[in-house]
Amino acid sequence: MTRRLGQRRLAVLASVYLAFALQAAAADLPLLPGIGSADRRIAVDPTERPWNAIAKVQTNIGTRCTGALIAPDTVLTAAHCLYNRRTRAMLQAGSLHVLFGYERGAYRWHRTVTRYTVGAGFEGGAARPQASDWARLQLSEPIPASVAPLPVVAAIPPPGTPIALPGYNQDRAQILMADVSCRVLGNTELLGQPFLAHDCAATRGTSGGPLLFDRSGGWAVIGLNIGAGRASNVALPATAFASATSAGS
Predict the structure, then answer these.
(1) Buried b / exposed e across 136-169, counting CB within 10 Å, b at 16+?
(2) 81 and 208 in contact (C-beta within 8 Å)?
(3) Is there a contact between 224 and 57 (Cβ–Cβ < 8 Å)?
(4) 124 partner at 20 to 30 Å CA-CA among 32, 84, 96, 204?
(5) In order along the chain (249 residues), what is the average pLDDT of each group of 10 residues?
(6) Phi, psi of 19 (to 5 degrees)
(7) What would the DSSP string read from start to end of 43-86?
(8) Residue 152 has what DSSP assignment?
(9) Other beta carbons within 10 Å of 2
(10) Predicted pLDDT at 230
């Protein structure tokens, strides 16, 4: 019981830290928040499963995030990646570009976005973590069947669950990196909204990257990375977005 309470306390602290970190000036944050002293990231092949379902999401204003293919024509990413802080408005769908198999400027498939949906009540300028910080991107064309979409599993993973987090990190933006040896630290609620704390090494650019769990039937999305902190990173559990991002909804 003591151990369980300690894990929950760690998750609460991680989430609260993120809430303050998002309000802090950039100069107050480490150069690469979310990496920490144990950088376990490795380069993975963006043409092999499950990494070929990971997308680089680029915008016409030069910002970049990570996304995951969850249906042949649907990509999941973080809503804050689509917010233009200069104009204080969400970007137009036509200004978004989704690249699969991206590595050092080359890619296998490029798709534009015809429309997108973000979580209900999402506030782009809010300086706090939000359970609505997810976006479903509708692609202009489906990705070929050779790329298997990642299923979304609506469950709260318990502390200690082994996971992997792939993404196009700020410091290695030209190659797909992944931490394949990390775990869920805990889950909690902040302002009545669910969040996960995890120890995957990932920094800016990995927002929107999926927390992957290797179940018996293959890899599945159990969370969505939304923020980097000094001690841990913060994600949404799939329960926050699964029903709204399922194919056909």
Answers:
(1) bbebeeebeeebebbbbbeeebebebebbbbbbb
(2) yes
(3) no
(4) 32
(5) 50 43 43 81 97 97 95 97 95 98 97 97 89 97 97 93 96 95 90 89 94 92 89 89 72
(6) -60, -40
(7) E--TTSTTGGGEEEEEETTS-EEEEEEEETTEEEE-GGGGEETT
(8) B
(9) 6
(10) 67
Rounded to the nearest 5 percent, the helix, strand and coil shares of the chain are 15, 40, 45
Angstrom distances, CA of residue 190 to CA of 31, 33, 235: 26, 21, 12
Ordered alpha helix ranges (H), 60-213: none
CA-angle at 41, arms to 144 and 208, nearest 5°? 50
Provide φ and ψ at 201, rounded to 5°. Answer: -75, 115
Q: What are phi and psi of 203, to 5 degrees?
A: -130, -160
pLDDT at residue 231, as a whole number: 62
**CATH number for domain 52-139, candidates 2.40.50.460, 2.40.10.10, 1.10.760.10, 3.40.50.150:** 2.40.10.10
Distance, in Å, from the CA atom of 168 to the CA atom of 158, rounded to the nearest integer, reads 26
Amino acid at 190: L
Where are the chain's structural domains? Answer: 2-44+150-245, 52-139
Global confidence as pTM: 0.88
Q: Which residues pair with 195 in a beta bridge?
A: 188
Other beta carbons within 10 angstroms of residue 17's beta carbon come to: 18
Identical fold between 2-44+150-245 and 52-139: yes
